[in-house]
Amino acid sequence: MYTFVNNIIRFSNKTTLDDFILTGLSTKHSIEFPLFMLFLVIYVFSFLSNISMTLLIGAVPKLHTPMYFFLSHLSLIDMCYSSTILPKMLSDFLTKQKYISFRACATQMFFFAMFATSECFMVTAMAYDRYVAICQPLLYHINMNNTFCWLLVIGSYMSSLVASVTHTVAIFSFPLCGSHEINHFYCDIPPLLKLICKHSHARKSVIFSLSLAMGIVSLFIILTSYVYIISTILGIQSTHGRSKAFSTCASHLTVVILFYSSVFCIYFSPSLGLELGNIDKFFSIFYSVASPLLNPLIYSFKNTEVKNALKHFLILNIKMKHLNT
């Protein structure tokens, strides 16, 4: 995939691939080591939580349902796109000059855009899954069959790949001009857009239109699904039934609100004429660092099936160890 990104960059008119300078989170060197330790703990815990969720869902047959199938891919995506950002971010905390090469910057942006877009599509697929489960329960196993679930997942990955290639080509296919300083802690689309010069309006329009279209379509499907879901739940006579139905959606709805609120502030506010300044770094930390950490915690702590499956899995492993000894 790195070679593929390099092939995209070869279309560039740039004759030399200069380094960029990342401003990072803070200019105060005295707090960079404490930040390094903090984000190292977050990254390790996030990585282990997501890979554990993926392995648990794969190992426990009770969790082999469409909802947990999508959740396992969500955990895989979270693990990948936090790994695209945090290792470089951690190394920058330990250096005075935070350089990143032209190719490395393009590669980082390509993978981050791909995984972030995949997350957008995956939570949309999960919303549709909840809609079918609650609003069409008798047809759930027919509509959400294994083939259809795989089509949704593969479609999410392929659409994300196309979107990421489009973004990368739009930004890096022509020379960037002006300062080589990126006012961010990684190569994200909004700060890079500020560095483009040639055909800048057309390129910004392509990127914004594509991002807006994907965001609106995904959000429309999610909101429409929840309108029907809430309408169906309110029609349930049993209080226990309503509570159970709400609990199956609470975790996913929490993830959707956290993800889309931060993404909107980063990607759509500049297009509406709203300048966030350095506050955009806070929102970027939220969806690139905190979100991959919170997602498995939200689903594990608020989901009885996951907690029971984990307990059963641990007890079974302990018994197997005793039998082996």
Automatic annotation (TrEMBL):
GO molecular function: G protein-coupled receptor activity; odorant binding; olfactory receptor activity
Pfam families, alphabetized: 7tm_4
Record-linked Gene3D superfamilies: Rhodopsin 7-helix transmembrane proteins (1.20.1070.10)
Membrane topology: Multi-pass membrane protein
Residues spanning the membrane: 35-60, 106-128, 148-174, 206-229, 250-270, 282-301
Domain of life: Eukaryota
Protein localization: Cell membrane
SMART domains membership: 7TM_GPCR_Srsx
Residue ranges of domain G-protein coupled receptors family 1 profile in the record: 49-299
InterPro entries given in the database record: GPCR_Rhodpsn, GPCR_Rhodpsn_7TM, Olfact_rcpt, Olfactory_GPCR
Family: Belongs to the G-protein coupled receptor 1 family.
Protein name: Olfactory receptor
Naturally occurring in which organism (per UniProt): Xenopus laevis
Species classification: Eukaryota, Metazoa, Chordata, Craniata, Vertebrata
